[in-house]
Structures are given as C-alpha cells and as structure tokens.
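Field: COMPLEX_INPUT
Field: COMPONENT_COUNT = four
Field: RESIDUE_TOTAL = 983
Field: MODE = joint
Values follow.
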Amino acid sequence: MDDTSLKEDIGTEEFWVNMGPQHPSTHGVLRLELKLSGETVVDGIVHIGYLHRSMEKIAENRTYTQFIPFTDRLDYLASMNNNLAYVLAVEKLMGIEVSDRAKYIRVIMAELGRIASHLFGITTFVQDLGAFATPLFYGMREREKIVELFDDVCGQRLTYNYMRVGGVSRDLPNGADGKIKGIIKYLRPKFDDLEALFNSNPIFTARTRGVGVLTASKAVNYGVTGPNLRASGVKWDLRKDEPYLCYDKFTFDIPVGNNGDAWDRYKVRMDEMRQSLRIAEQAVLGLPEGDPTVKAGRIFRPEPGETYMRSENPRGELGFYIVSDGSPIPFRMKIRSPSFSNIAVLPDLIRGLKIADAVCVLGSLDVVMGEIDR
Amino acid sequence: MSNGEAFGLIKLKIPDTSLEEKTRAIVVPREGILEAARCLTGQGFDSLHNLTAVDNKDNVTLVYHFYSMKKRAGIVLKTQLLPDDLTVESVERFWRSADWLEREVYDLFGVKFLNHPNLKRILNPEEWTIHPLRKT
Amino acid sequence: MIIPVLTLIIMLIVGAVVLGFIAVSAMFLIWWERKVSAHIQTRYGPMRVGWHGALQSVADVIKLLLKENITPSGVDRLSWWLAPFFAVVPVVMVFVCIPFGNIFGIELIARDLNIGILYIMALTSICVLGIFMAGWGSNNKYSLLGGMRSAAQIVSYEIPLVLAMVTAVMFAGSLSMQKIVEAQKGLWFVFQPNMAIAFAIFIIAGTAEVNRTPFDIPEAESELVAGFHTEYSGMKFAMFFLGEYTNMFVISALAATLFLGGWSGPFLPPVIWFLIKTYGLVTFMMWIRWTLPRVRVDQLMGFAWKVLTPVSFANLIVAGWILMK
Amino acid sequence: MIKYFTCIISGIWNLAKGLFVTLKNVFVKPVTLQYPTQKLEMTQRYRGLVDLYPEKCIKCGQCVKICPTACLDLSVKAGEGADKKKEFGHFKYNMELCCFCGLCEQVCPTQAIYMNKIYEIAVYEHGKLHIDLLDKDKYDEWANPDVK
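Field: COMPLEX_OUTPUT
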C-alpha cells in the first residue's frame, strides 16, 4: 500500500454541524452552521431571522406612543434602554425638551438597566464556558434587586414601557430613591464576589484570553459598537462623545480593553457596571424636584422630516431612523440594532478556533436575538 | 468635518450631487455611489453605521449613515432609485458592515446590490418572493 | 453438595446487597448533588417529594422506568443497545474489592483480591468503551464528538491516575485493598508530603475520569448539547446516569481507601468512617463542579500531559527514593 | 522550573478563592420562593389583567384608541333615558392580544379602567381568554381570585 492510498483510506473529512436554533448556548434562536474539521471550526455561517416579527412594519401602523411597548421586545434584557432610545429619537424629531427630573430619572433607569443587562450577559457567558448555572444564579439574584425596583416604579418586570415622549409614565414612588441607594450599596460587594469567581480563575482566563481577537480596525469596519468595540481599544461611548440627556453632568470613566479578546469583552462589561453604579449614584443624589410625567394620550404629529438618533445601549448603539410625513404615525422607521452588527462579525472571529471557543466568542459578544431579528 | 465640507469634496468628483435642504443630507446619483464611498473612506469615515431604505412610492431612497471615529463626525448620504430598476453598487468592499445591512435592505425592499458577495435573504425565508416593506 | 449451594447462596446475597447499595447510593447522590448545587446557588432544590425532597430520586427513577424506549432511526443498533451496559457493568464490578470496613468481625468486602488495585485499574478503563460506543452508535455528530473527546480524555488521564495509585501501592507494599487500609492504621497516607501530592493528582485525574466539570468535555452541555448521551432517553439514559454517579462513588471510595485510611478511624464504627470519607470526597467533587468553568479540549490534554503526568512521575520517583532510603 | 510551580500554586490558590465564594453562599438563606405555596406579593403598580369599574366609565373610548394591539372592543349606544346618556353596548377584552403595556390605564380620565394584580393567567379553555369587562364576577374563577 503506498502513501496516497493510505491517505485516502484513513483520510479525514470535514463535516457540517448545525448549531441551533435549539441549542443551549445560542442565546435564543440563532442558528450557526459550522464546518468542522475534527474539533476545529473551518468556517461558520450565521443564520438569523427565526424571531423576525417585522417591528419596522408594525411601527408604520402605530402612533408614536403606541410603539413604545414594542421597543420593549427588541432587546428584552434591556427594555428600559430601548424605551429611552426610542423616545429620544421621537423627541429629537419633535424638538421636545424634557424636564430635569425626567432626565435624571431616565439616567438612573438606563444605568440600572445597563447593570441588569450586563449581569445577565456576563453570567450567561460564563455559563457558556461551562460554569454551569452557579454564576448565572448569582447574576440573576443581583439582577432581581434591580428588576424589583423597576417593578415598583412601572409595574412590570420585563417589559417596562416606562419612558414616554416628553418624560416618563410615572414619577418614582415614595421611598424609591432610598431603595436605589440601597441597591447601589448592595451591588458593590456583589461585583467583588463575581470578580473573585472569574477574574483570576486560571480556567476562566485560559479559556478567554487571546480567544476571538477582534482588532480595532475590524471592529469599526464591521460597525461593532458598545462594550465589544471598547474592548478592542476604541474609546467611543456616546454618553461621553455625543452626550444625550444629562450625561455630561456626571463624572465617569469609559473602560477600554487592549486586545479585543473574549477576556477584554468580559472585563469591559464588568468595569462598566461599576461605572454605571457611579452614574446612578450621582444621579440619585442630585435628583431635582418637579413633575416628570406626561399625558399618555397625547397624539404626536411631527413635521414632515426625518431624524436619526442613536444612544448607548448595553449592547451597543441602538439607533432609530424615523421618517415622518406629518401624520401621527411614522412613515418609515428603521431600527439599527447593535446586536445585528455585532453578530455579523462572528464568522470572522471563529474561523480556526475550537468548537468550544466558538461558543465562548458567541457568548462574549453578548447578543440578544430579539433585536437582531426585530 | 461637517456635511457641507464632505459635500464639497464629493461634488468635485460627482457634479450631480446635491444637498438636501432640511436634513443636510448629501444626495448622490445612483451611479456615483462607489465614487462617493471611495471619497468618504479617504476622508476617514471608517464606519458605515446604518444603511436603510425608504420607499417613497415614486422612488426608493437609500440612506447611508457614516461616522468617523477619529474625527468624531457623521454624515448622511442618500441615493434615489426608481422602482422599476432597483439596482445599486454594493459598498461592501469598503465597509464590511454593509454586508448584512445590504442583505437586509435587499430582503425587505428588493434592492439588488451589484457585486455583493452573498446577496441572500437574511430575515425572511429564502423562498419568499415578496419584499415586505415595499409600499406598492 | 451442601457447601457449593451455600457458597452460591452467600454469593447471591452479597451480590444483591452490593447492587442494592449501588442503586440506593446513586439515588442518594443524585438527590445530594441537587441539594448541594441548590444551596450553592441560594436555592432550595427539590422540596416536595418526602422530607426536603428526599424521595425525589425515587420518583425520577419511576418516571424514567415508565418512559417509552425510543430507538432513533439510523443508529447502530448493537452499540446503541450495548453502550449503557458497558457504562454501568464495569463500575459495578469494581465493587468486588472495595473494603467497606467490618461489622461484628465480618469483613465487608465481597472478595479481597490479592491483585485488587490491578483489577480496579483494568475495569475503570473499560468505561470509556461504553461512552465511545454511545457516541458512535447514536449516529449524531454531537454524540460522535463527545465520544471522541471522551476516548482521548480518559486514556490520557488514566496515566496520572494509575501513577498516583502506584505511589500508594508502593507505600503499602501490597496490591490488596485490605492490606493497603491496614498499612494506614497508624498514619493516613495523605499526611506524608509526597502522598499528599499523589492524592491531589488522584482527585484531579479522577474528576476527569468520571467526566465531571471542569473536565466534563464529553458531555459539555453548552457545546455538544449533551455529548454522548444526546440521543438517549428513558431507562438507557438512567443507566448512564447510574454509571456516572456510581463511578463518582467508586473514585471517591478509592481515594478514601488509598490515601485517607479507608475504613480505619477512631471512635466511630469502620463502615461509618468509610462512608463519611467517601461521601465527603464526593461532596468536594460536587462543590468543584458547581463553581468552576470547563476547560477546553486541547487545554485538557495539555494539562494531562504537561502537568499531571510529569508531576506524578516525579512524585513516584521521589516516593521510591524515600522507600529505598 | 520555579515559574512552572509558582504557576501551579497560584492557580490552585485562585481556584480556592472561587470555591470560597460558592462556599460562602451555601450559608446564605435561599432567595427563591416555594411557588404555589409561597407567592410573591405584587407591587402597588403591578400591571396584571385589565379590569373595569363600569360605574366610573364615561365611555370616551380613549383606551380603545390607544391600545397598541387592539385588544379592547367597546361599543356604545345612546341611552333610553331622557338625558340620552351613553350606555354600554359591550366592552370586551381579548387577553390573547394584550401586551400588558398599561397605556389604557394611564390614558383613562376617570381611572375606570385599571389593571389588577392577577398574574396567573393560564386557562384551560381558549374562550376564557375573551373576557367581558362588564361582567362583575369575571375574575372570580381565576387562579387566585382573592388577589384583586
């Protein structure tokens, strides 16, 4: 038997594995087609659309106020921030100025929502690495405090529908600021605990360091935003660079990574949560008096025109492009969702990695299917 | 760099370019989109932030939002397509983010992007023949 | 005529007792794992069936027994059917020479083989066959990957495991389990420095041997769905489960016997000592499982060949040097 | 060589730190509830099922107009009395469509329509999802009628 025939006899074969839409680590209904050579990923194709509800078409049949509940269902782990991004866009279109108290309340809610979202993102990421359920439960337990506050404030635990064009739906209930201070005090040591679980854990660092490196130029070119972009070393945060609401009044830092690997993406999120606590603390201390609420029934008729407003969501920049024709319903609304751009970079990142690392990279990108498919 | 400056630069290359009054968006003719893209990448607009289309019934307008991380500036570029000939050059070779964004626009509006590496439906099933966000 | 019949009856009784113990122990361990994990995660765990859900495992077993026996189309029938048995039977056979201690002078060991350790080493390596057959026979790519991983993993972790065991054997001077326990009457092996290292290696390699986090790559939930037992359900799945938990018990019992003095200990009866040590080690393995993430497959192999094997080999040489002195 | 061993030892130490965190949590009282026997108390502003005080309602139809999913259906007829006061034709609530956004509650000028505290909203019959808001006992047979 010569060499070539031996090779043919015991040669290896690449094969396709279908990962998802039902798979424990695809965060919803993402479908990946992976071409594997043994354990190594040769190529990957991302299929999306399993959660497509055509939000943009729905928006063309709803008034501006009526669409707010639908924004809850985009990135369902950060509904508060979606609400905020949407009402900011409508306010920019209408040229409405918001009262100071409403601004501060919005900042508090957005930052707490960011923490809630990052807690979920980090802990599910660690679960993807195989630390089964324990970090996730810790994250959920900490998140529960924030969710309880949201429940107190707006009456729901997942789909808040709290922001309104021109303000918020309801003022904070009595004693809410004390509660927020309590949450901030409670969360700080809990973050230390989470960091003790992961930061220096040799298995965790071995699994994440140098895995799925996203260079800065590639990140920008792919339109990656949010913590994923900052992990690649680009210091870009809309809260600092294009301040909306009253973010320019608060002091906070923007955590930036160096290498753009999975570890940096984790670390940036972890640090960002602490910064969010700082912002929330300053906001709750400086909370002005006044009436933040607006009448829910108001019908908005913007001038014909268009606007594009983006704001810093936990997963990146959520943009709303609204075209108005003067009627109470938008003529066209495009939702530029951060996860959509973030997931597009995945095939590039996982090429040549092990299948376990592909899961790690997907987890570290922290995508939510609700806003990818819209 | 403001819209005005970028407009001046593109105007040099493509004489048909105009500036929209209200939105300060640069409107380039369909044929000039590649030239404009080349011009913008040269000017440091390294991120195609958003790409979408608006069906105005008599035409379909493509809206590009570009940002420059270095210059901290953003511009809006528009180009108009006629409903009976919805084809335009793909800008995927300049900005990789255009890959999925163009696929989405193709899926929802039926705009065909020429020289796109993988122009397939992205959100809707592949066997569909309609484009759901078209108004006509 | 009387004597062979009597022997047969005694054998049957012993066998029944061992099998009964295995079943009860596995069910207890499943309940215990659920409780441990729940309390680590600040939950309650099972609370409804019996006192603090103590009978939950019984209910689960009944459910699994009553489930339909599904054979997916396209499986390799022979290996599909045999795999669960291959996963369980060797583990059960190991119980032949595990010394549980003694009650009223009767030694609780099915048969004190004079090559006990060798016998156990041989049997524990058979388990991989069951897993690999399941992975191959399922006709599922995830299962196949799981089976492949398992084969690689168990073969490489066998070496440090055996080297650690050999260290204990060298100190005891015998392959018989009872003799090893008796050798530790004065001082447990684990209190000698190089035996402590051997103990640590044994626990790490043992964790890998029974496919538990951080070395659970054959069934890596977040990567391979459920690895080799993705396609199994009902009683066949229960067999894998039984095999896994019994294997855990066996590894802990071995560690207790080889390094922690087996059933010997002051005040309490020997059986209690043995069970305390074994279940303590099992709990430690659970604690690790619910804390640490999983290592990647190449890191796992690298760890076995670059860290565990050299260290255990060096440890063996040092032990030999100490004994020669 | 020294580096090799310090690496191993620091690795073990850091693993132990993580193990300590989980051990610490074993002694924390569980935070979960034993659900059917223990229940979470709903907050003041909780948005459960839509409910109505028929006597307060002025039949303005604002709730119907603002509902994003069109789950409310109100018909009004002219009253037979001398003042021609508006009267209910029917007021139906389709719970299938409801997205529990609370806009109807907020838009109501008289606080007639409100959201109660019922959160166990699974039913055995499909028809029960279509609720007649004018029926006084409509929520009596729901999972926990005592929480209203």
